[in-house]
Specification:
Elements: E1 6-9, H1 19-33, E2 38-43, H2 53-66, E3 75-76, H3 81-93, E4 97-100, H4 104-117, E5 141-144, E6 151-156, E7 160-165, E8 173-175, H5 183-193, E9 198-202, H6 206-218, E10 225-229, E11 232-233, H7 249-254, H8 259-268, H9 281-287, E12 298-299, H10 302-315, H11 318-331, H12 339-352, H13 359-365, H14 367-370, H15 379-384, H16 387-396, H17 407-420, H18 425-437, H19 445-465
Parallel strand pairs: 1-2, 2-3, 9-10, 11-12
Antiparallel strand pairs: 4-5, 5-8, 6-7
Helix pairs in contact: 3-5, 5-6, 8-10, 11-12, 12-19, 16-19, 18-19
Length: 469
């Protein structure tokens, strides 16, 4: 029977959940969910000076918005420090680690001399093989005994076989002088204790794998499968940073990108399944594998993101879209809409979501619903409502009083009205848009009428028919 897949996402709570971290979480989530495995969340909060509750909340909120649910409780790395220290002392007792009494000044002197002589500055502690009876009564760190010759081979599912010469690995510190564990020890112990079978993370951690593998080997623990994914670059090919636009995941929500579109785009950012661009979560879970991850850095492209988001908005059921639209407004710091406007939005979603790439665009198209009488006109619309156009609307309105309020009924009456006056419908559409929405870029005139209903439509047309309306 094959081993159950266990993955983890392990962010540091020193800031927001950036887009690279979000993709790492997504890759772990997809790999796990497609294999009926377990996806764990560990907050690596050992850096007490920089870790904040606000950052932890931002990470959890970002994952929640993206729909990346984790299994079990959130694990705090800091709270597991006694267990990390226990492993260091076990290795010490087994002779696989040692007490090093070298001071920071001695280490610096060694490095300065090595640099001056053109030798490796990798510190070789003189305490590695000293008998314990010769140990002074002074503070010490615990170092692991790194292999001195040969190579460490990292079998990576993305990078292939990576060889690191062991003479490039130092006797890494496990416990500091104050007894606190270092990050490398904490990660290795946590991954083992949590039963992590696959470590999927950014390739900036590739060298860390060799150091963490020393702990696995010394403890006789089975190694996880490693997959180090390339970083994300901006459109200019440079490492993604603030200058490329939004960095925190919550900013993308506030900018109006739907979570499904974001998941789809991030999945395609460095991973592919044939030529498929648009796909559902179910397809992504079924298709995602480590072999589809490329070795080169992916480039973030806002146009591709918007294109996919537009397709997801169009494909989403109206009720779900309305729910997410409300969440977007909250994230963007906008006021809650009254129930009657929400009801109208729900009934109008079928025409609002066409060709809307973001919720911001959808909100823009919904202005005819969200505005209240009297409708304010933008400059283009004001120009459409000259004295002639007002007269035409005044003439048209009585024809709408008893019409069957359906697309067919409205089209018959309005088209017939235009034909009787030898007008093209386009000549009538401009003033109607202005009267109903106060702007020229809107859904179709008939869709707006259907969504607003007979009473509101006629009231707006009456307003626009008046001089100065």
């Amino acid at each position: 029977m094959s081993q159950k897949v266990v993955t983890r996402f392990a962010p540091s709570p020193t800031g927001f959940l950036h887009i690279g971290g979000a993709r790492t979480a997504l890759f772990n989530w997809l790999y796990t969910r497609g294999r009926d495995g377990t996806f764990l969340l560990r907050i690596e909060d050992t850096d007490r000076a920089r870790s904040t509750p606000e950052a932890t909340k931002a990470i959890l909120d970002g994952l929640r918005w993206l729909g990346l649910d984790h299994d079990g409780e959130v694990i705090s790395q800091f709270e597991r420090a006694p267990r990390h220290a226990e492993v260091a002392h076990q290795l010490l007792a087994e002779g696989k680690a040692y007490k090093c009494f070298s001071t920071q000044e001695e280490i610096q002197e060694f490095r300065d001399a090595a640099r001056a002589e053109g030798r490796s500055t990798l510190y070789q502690s003189p305490w590695r093989d000293v008998d314990q009876s010769a140990h002074p009564d002074a503070s010490f760190v615990i170092r692991i005994k790194a292999p001195r010759d040969g190579v460490t081979l990292i079998k990576d599912e993305v990078q292939g076989e990576v060889k690191i010469r062991n003479d490039q690995l130092d006797d890494m510190v496990l416990l500091r002088g104050d007894g606190t564990p270092v990050y490398m020890l904490a990660v290795a112990v946590d991954d083992h204790d949590m039963g992590v079978t696959h470590v999927i993370r950014g390739d900036d951690h590739l060298n860390n794998a060799a150091r963490q593998m020393m702990i696995y080997t010394a403890m006789d623990w089975p190694l996880p499968v490693y997959a180090h994914i390339p970083l994300i670059h901006g459109p200019d090919g440079k490492k993604l940073s603030k200058r490329h636009g939004a960095l925190g995941v919550e900013e993308y929500q506030a900018m109006g990108y739907p979570a499904a579109g974001m998941r789809n785009y991030l999945a395609r950012l460095g991973w592919s399944h044939g030529d498929d661009e648009f796909f559902t979560d179910a397809q992504a879970k079924e298709w995602f594998d480590l072999g589809g991850i490329g070795k080169s850095p992916a480039r973030f492209d806002f146009k591709k993101l918007e294109n996919l988001c537009g397709q997801h908005i169009a494909a989403t059921e109206d009720a779900a879209l309305l729910h997410e639209f409300a969440s977007y407004r909250a994230a963007a710091g906008q006021e809650t809409l009254p129930d009657d406007k929400l009801t109208l939005l729900g009934s109008g979603m079928y025409c609002l979501k066409e060709r809307a790439k973001t919720f911001t665009e959808l909100f823009d198209k919904a202005s005819f619903i969200l505005n209240s009488r009297p409708i304010n006109l933008d400059d283009k619309s004001a120009a459409q409502l000259d004295i002639v156009s007002r007269g035409i609307l005044s003439e048209l309105t009585p024809h709408l009083q008893n019409v069957t309020w359906s697309r067919e009924g409205l089209e018959t009456v309005i088209m017939g009205f235009a034909e009787a006056r030898e007008m093209k419908f386009g000549k009538l559409a401009g003033p109607l848009r202005a009267a109903l929405a106060g702007r020229s870029a809107t859904p179709s005139v008939f869709d707006m009428m259907l969504v607003l209903g007979a009473d509101e439509t006629i009231a707006r047309l009456n307003d626009a028919s008046q001089p100065g309306g």
